[in-house]
Amino acid sequence: MQEVLTMVPWLLPVLYGGMAIAFFCAVLRLIIGPDLPDRVVALDLALAIVLCVAAVYAAETGHQHFLDVALAIGVIAFISTVALARFLERGAMEEQ
């Protein structure tokens, strides 16, 4: 992957810029989301973008331990999304 990054010098600023814009949009939705499911999806998206930043940085620098960080972020994002979905489902079941 580092060979591709050195062959295309404009790729890293485009990647980081795109992820920064996407992260800003996700945080904006997290703040102004009209209800809880919108905020959960926005938080999951923000964590996925942070995961992508860690993976791109690992590819850029060659440090493999950032992939461990990306894996941990992915696991935390998955568990939190499932936990919140179960919480919302339990609340819907109690309303019936």
The overall strand count is: 0
Please tell me how large the radius of gyration is. 17 Å
Low-pLDDT stretches are none
**Termini gap:** 53 Å
CATH class: Mainly Alpha
Helix coverage percent: over 70%
* Sheet with most strands: none
* Structural class designation: mainly alpha
CATH topology: Helix Hairpins
| Domains, number | 1
Question: How large is the count of helical segments?
Answer: 4
What percentage of amino acids are in beta strands?
Answer: under 5%
What string, H for helix and E for strand, traces the elements in order? HHHH
Mean pLDDT: 87
| CATH architect. name | Orthogonal Bundle
Shape: elongated
Relevant terms:
96 residues, mainly alpha
3D architecture notes:
Helix 3 (36-61) runs antiparallel to helix 4 (65-95). With 96 residues, the protein is mainly α. The protein has 4 helices and no strands. The termini are far apart. Helices cover 89% and strands 0% of the residues.
Condensed summary:
The chain is an all-alpha fold. Helix content is 89%, strand content 0%.
Chart the SSEs and their pairings.
Layout: H1 2-7, H2 11-32, H3 36-61, H4 65-95
